[in-house]
Amino acid sequence: MKHIYKIGVLGLMLLAFSCSKDKEVAKAVPEEPKPRAVAEIIRDPNNAFTFEFKSTSLNAKSTRWTFGDDSVAIVPTAKHTYLYAGIFKVLLRVENGQGYVAQQEMTINISPEKILTIQAKPTADGNVKFAAVSATAFKDFKWTFADKTTSTEASPIKKITEGKIETVTLNVTTEQGSTIELKKMIGSFGGISDVTKGATLAVSNENGNGPFGGEGSLKLIDGDNGTKFFSGGFNANFWMKQTLVAPQVVRVYSITTGNDEKVRDPKTWTLQGSMDGEVWDVLDSRTVEFSDRNEVRAFAFENTKAYPYYRWYVTANWGNISIFQASEWRLFRVD
């Protein structure tokens, strides 16, 4: 019995010593400071697709970058080149030695319009010379014109029919394989930009179903040549007025005919500009005969003033009737 008692006491002592030792070890493990994710992104001034990603995070033992295009890196500082334009969500994830995680999310916007500009300048012989202007170097060019012809020259020359507005498409590629596609509206007078978007419209004689009707006045600036504005109240004092989002030096406008009889087409008009919507300056006067339905014609004129208001004042149509139609009326600045 004495031996059994001694063994029992010895077991209890060993158990107590073991528990005490475990408690001492647990207390000895220090808690690491929590991580904090801090990122810096630097764009390459010579290549709009390339960025340097720097992590200056605190208390980080591991780093992971997710670049938003299915690419990742696991180093604190990484350089990455995107192969196409777009909006990319970048995520920096850092972790300390005990598994605590911190993250920072950022957005990169690679916009073709901010990287590349298409210049189009009229030449002395009536052509238009094109050029791609960018701080980023491109090695391959492909120009596609409205007549489906193409050019791989950096600065091609093309004939643009007077009175026509065409769209040219440019595809370019860098040495690293990054690509951009950009479109530009062109006339025989050079490159133009549509300033009608966002404008408000008022008319002297509205469609019977109102401006939002199927053939209401708002169809005149909806950007769709397949719709039209129809009014049964045409007279010699018929006008349509655009109030632009901001004053613009408009030097080109386009008219698109409707889909119905030619007698409803505008014939004689003036384009006017105003600083206050009350006093109007005559900028252009025309008598025009259109030859087709849904025909787009562009008209250029000299102007140096940035007007907030423009008015299309139509005094005659081609049938001397009280019906008017037109599909589009757009205003442009020359770039």
Description:
The chain has about 325 residues and is mainly beta. It folds into 3 domains: about 70 residues, Sandwich (Immunoglobulin-like), CATH 2.60.40.10; about 80 residues, Immunoglobulin-like, CATH 2.60.40; about 140 residues, Galactose-binding domain-like (Jelly Rolls), CATH 2.60.120.260. It contains 2 helices and 25 strands. It has an 8-stranded antiparallel beta sheet, with no helix packed on it. A 5-stranded antiparallel beta sheet has the order 16-18-23-20-21, with no helix packed on it. The protein has a 4-stranded antiparallel beta sheet with strand order 4-3-6-7. The radius of gyration is 34 Å and the shape is elongated. The chain starts with a helix and ends with a strand.
List keywords for this structure.
335 residues, mainly beta, Immunoglobulin-like, five-stranded antiparallel beta sheet, 2 helices, 25 strands, 9% helix, 45% strand
Provide a quick synopsis of the model:
This protein has 335 residues and is mainly β. It has helices at residues 2-28, 112-115; strands at 39-43, 50-55, 62-66, 72-73, 77-81, 86-95, 101-110, 117-122, 128-133, 140-144, 150-151, 157-158, 166-173, 179-187, 190-194, 200-203, 229-231, 238-248, 252-256, 266-274, 281-287, 296-300, 307-317, 324-326, 328-334.
CATH class of the largest domain: Mainly Beta
Strand content: over 45%
Average pLDDT confidence is 92
Strand order within the widest sheet? 11-10-13-14-15-25-19-22
Instruction: Give the low-pLDDT segments.
Output: 1-17
Strand and helix order: HEEEEEEEHEEEEEEEEEEEEEEEEEE
Largest sheet: 8 strands, antiparallel
Over all CA atoms, what is the radius of gyration?
34 Å
CATH architecture of the largest domain: Sandwich
Query: Which topology of the largest domain does CATH recognise?
Result: Jelly Rolls
User: What is the count of β-strands?
Assistant: 25
Helix content: under 10%
Distance N to C terminus: 109 Å
The number of helices is 2
Q: Class by helix and strand content?
A: mainly beta
Structurally, the number of domains stands at: 3
CATH homologous superfamily heading of the largest domain: Galactose-binding domain-like
Shape: elongated
